[in-house]
Structures
1.
Amino acid sequence: MLLDFFNLSANLKNTSRQGWIDKLSITNPESVADHTFSMAIIGMVLSDSKNYDTEKILKMILLHDLAESVTGDITPDKKPKNEKIILENKIMKDILANLPKSIQIQYFKIWEEYQENESLDAKFVHQVDKFEMAIQAKIYQKQTSFEKTRVFFESAKEEITDPNLLKFLEQLYME
């Protein structure tokens, strides 16, 4: 059963980030695993610098898009948010069912906390998610144009409230 979990997780390496395809016509976009790895690096460093619970932050980052190993990357314009949450909750329960019960419970609690986006940790991870998206938009800006990537920077700016992330976002935007 653990092998099933590991295989599903590894499938994120073959799951493209759909927004880059839909909005920028990128033919070989980053995978969800690429995105998660970059988020983990950002989250680890910033969490440690803020004395947050870095282990929990990293677990939340690693779990936050895991359902996409089954569903693919569903963009907000493809499915209403509440339907996506219901679908992903069911998928996560199925994915986590391959783990020992105590780990299932722990990981699903972290997943739910992320989905609810009310705790300090969840809010931080959501902001790291948006910041990482802006970094990738900057990378793709070289392949497309500032005008096409602007929507990603604006989306990040609407969601990010952390002063450090806002400062980094501003610097990124001005490069």
2.
Amino acid sequence: MSELAELLSKAKKVVVLTGAGISTESGIPDFRSPGGIWERFRIIEYREFMASEDARLEDWRRRFYMEDQLGEVKPNIAHKVIADWVDTGKCSKLITQNIDGLHQEAGTKTGAMIEIHGSARHANCTECGLRHEISECRLMLEELGSSPRCRECEGIIKSAVVMFGEQMPLLETNLAFQAAGDCDLFLAIGTSLVVRPVASLPECAISAGAKFAIINRDNTQLDHLANVVVNAGIGETMAKMQVK
């Protein structure tokens, strides 16, 4: 932790990447862990969602379950420390794989964030792109008994989360790699660094001359590239990294 604190003190432009591990301490289970979301609901891929009404209904049942969960959880100290880093200018950009909205609740400015896997907090029409709130979609399904349709064009509405089999958002992906290539410290927090293209971001930062640090309970496949690895609780670690 002392080595990590030294890296942070010397860094002028930190980019932070967060994964599911930062939110487990707020009570959100890791999707892939025992008891996680993929044990309760089957995975619906994008192509099936667009082609099948039954698949859309199954996916919306999962979304509503997640929304109910998200309504009960609050940001933890790690979310708040990152928000402080952004406020003070220590962190130039936060890239998050999480879809739970807890970084925003902790006060992280939206303009400093890249939600590279989207957000579960709202939905969009797949035809015209019009935003719909999750509560609005739930009401449509309950009243009509069918999957929600756009109030403007009748197109299929989909949660703003990037689904399995769906193309990654080009803008957010490009912005993430630009940020990684323009920092002096890339800090990965609570992510296994397995899912690509996100797992390639540290390599991009290192290639541009940045230091690389990891905070995660378990080992990752990129530990060998890091200048510092802290295998400990994320909340307890981040609490010691608050801006003085």
